[in-house]
Amino acid sequence: MKITAAKLIICSPDRNFVTLRIETEEGIYGLGDATLNGRELAVASYLEDHILPCIIGRDPFQTEDIWQYLYRGAYWRRGPVTMSAIAAVDVALWDIKGKALNTPVYNLLGGQSRQGCLVYTHANGADIAEALDSVRKHMDEGYLAVRAQAGVPGLSSSYGVPKAGKSYEPAERGLPSESLWSTERYLNFAPTLFEKLRVELGPDVHLLHDVHHRLTPIEAARLGKSLEPYHLFWIEDPCPAELQESFKLIRQHTTTPVATGEVFNSLWDSHDLIRHQLIDYIRMTIVHGGGITHAKKTADFAALYNVRTGFHGATDLSPITMAAALHFGLAIHNFGIQEHMHHSKLTDEVFPHHYSFDAGYMHPGDAPGLGVDIDEVLAAKHPYQRASLPIARKLDGTLTDW
Ligand code: GCO
Ligand code: MG
Q1: What's the whole-number mean pLDDT along residues 314-327?
Q2: 46, 143, 159, 361: the active-site residue
Q3: Which atom belonging to ligand 1 lies closest to the Cα atom of 210?
Q4: Atom 3, ligand 1: which residue's CA is nearest?
């Protein structure tokens, strides 16, 4: 088989997506997601200017060699732009392999290891009462695991809580907006939220919470300790992870499980966290972490240390990444949970797919390849629009992690 053409489709069906379509001389094509929220055009340029000309004429079955060519061959390594671009190629090639062999991608990764992938979705509210209603609503829909975020009293906006009447979407059109943050108010509030949720909802529902990199290690340790009575499934990204040894301090103080890594883009970002067993779940997902080829190595390494996957699955990861993550999660042994933040109706129309949700679990479907397509005519009606992630400042104006 030979790759004959590759092109990008950049569209904005309610939010921006960058999609790579690779074609072969047999007429089989594959799709890869190259979306990096707020930095979409940088990845598009990396692909267009530097990668796509190099893959024409290659054998799409050679996913390992092509991966090494794009990673090692570039000399400049890692980083979200590079790794998202490599991921787009890699995922499109796995899609082609599946279609060429007439089998779903999960069969190429080990076959079905479970009946479905446990997923968690997002609940949020301006206050505790609204957050409780929102968790209940998702439990009624069948979810067994729900992430809960609520407005922190005394702050005009809080991470994960949408503006009234809208559904939560991290990026906003235009240049970055600014929000205010207070660690003190948050740390006093968070345990009261989860106490209420546990008392009202009982012991069975898995409750998750995203700290979004906002604490120092000792603050995160206090949070984890204060949440222990409510036995969360995890706290996510309790502090920034550039300094991997930060997590040692959290670990020394709390048994609340820890998930991190949605901003990671290679196994090296989590190498120490995994081998010292400082985290329980690794969140680096397929699109930002070099594709299926590199995610498999990361998950296999993590398996040795009892670390399971809990892949990022926000709306800025396209349905192609969602499908890839579900094929992957169905096949590997150390799957933990998969995030499922619903795409808009329009996004789902642009990317028709075979994956489905039933009683708390998702399945990628049995179509050959990834089982996702793109409606290019509809996509063209929704062109790219600049959008940015917000930034956060402390109450005294100091810039802090959003
Ligand atoms: C999550 C997230 C996201 C990110 C977003 C950034 O789902 O856990 O933290 O919502 O903020 O993906 O692009
Ligand atoms: Mg997160």
Answers
A1: 98
A2: 159
A3: 8
A4: 314
Residue 402 is assigned to a structural domain of this protein = no
- For 264-276, give one letter per residue: b (16+ CB within 10 A) or e: bbbbebbeebbee
User: Which CATH number goes with the domain that contains 170?
Assistant: 3.20.20.120
In sequence order, which residues have a C-beta less than 8 Å from that of residue 288 and are 6 or more positions away? 36, 80, 83, 84, 87, 262, 263, 264, 265, 312
User: Do 241 and 321 belong to one domain?
Assistant: yes
Q: Would you call 335 helix, strand, or coil by DSSP? A: strand
The verdict on 294 and 262 lying in the same domain is: yes
Same domain, 182 and 324: yes
Structure tokens at 120: 């968690």
Could you say which of 212, 213, 288, 343 is catalytic?
212
Does one domain contain both 316 and 201?
yes
For residue 165, pLDDT over 80 is answered with: no
- Give the largest Cα separation in the chain, rounded: 61
Cα 62 to averaged position of ligand 2 atoms, centre (Å): 33
> Does 372 fall in a domain?
no
Does 65 lie in the same domain as 145? no
Please identify, by atom number, the ligand 1 atom nearest to the C-alpha of residue 317.
12
Q: Catalytic site residue 361?
A: no
Question: pTM of the prediction?
Answer: 0.98
Residues 192-216 have pLDDT tens digits of 999 999 999 999 999 999 999 999 9
> Which residues form the domain of 240?
108-366
CB 320 within 8 A of CB 68: no
- pLDDT beyond 70 at 354: yes
Return the percentage of the chain with pLDDT > 90, whole number. Answer: 96
Q: How confident is the model at residue 368 (pLDDT cuts 50, 70, 90)?
A: very high
How far apart are the CA of 116 and the centre of ligand 1, in A? 23
- Residues having CB closer than 6 A to ligand 1 are 37, 170, 210, 212, 262, 314, 316, 339, 341, 389
Residues 179, 277, single domain; the answer is yes
Mutate to test the pocket of ligand 1, among 84, 212, 342 (most ligand atoms within 8 A of CB): 212
Indicate the residue among 105, 127, 152 that finishes a domain: 105
Atom of ligand 1 nearest to the CA of 122: 7
Instruction: Looking at the structure, tell me whether residues 17 and 137 fall in a common domain.
Output: no
Which of 105, 82, 175, 89 minimizes the C-alpha distance to 371?
A: 105
How much distance in Å is there from the Cα of 101 to the middle of ligand 1? 35
